[in-house]
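Support request, please re-run this one:
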Amino acid sequence: MSPKKLVANDSVGKGKKATITVEVKKEIIAKHERGVRVVDLVREYGRTSSTICTILKRKEQFKTLEVAKGVTKVTKKRPQILEEVEKLLLVWMNERQLHGDSVSEALVCAKAKKLYVDLVRKTPGASSEEEEIFKASRGWFEKFRKRSGIQCCATWGGCQL
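Re-run finished. Output below.
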């Protein structure tokens, strides 16, 4: 009779995959370009060498990206104007927070729509039809919240960065 083999529990050590933000990917690329070895990056970020190497292989793509804070993956090319709207919106929300004001979802959506319309009007060659493309819906707001790390309290309707 042959000895029994011990079967390892497949679920041990495996949890939900943690995503890496684009900011961290850019940081990894910058460190590697300054001479930090892949092995050291693996230890520092707690990722596998294949993950780090994949990031480094796609470094040109990540270097050119200008995304809002907290974005983890780029599934499709978002219009640059929407990126600009979200950056301006975060600045506006920071200013409101510094004044001690809270902002509601409706207020954020209205401000986002206004910023979008203003930016489209300032863009040369833009038509009035483009002003109607962006809706600033509840779905957009929820995704914007996740992308930028905004915390909202449902009981009083205010948001904090």
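The first helix runs from residue 22 to 33. Residues 6-13 have pLDDT under 50 and may be disordered.
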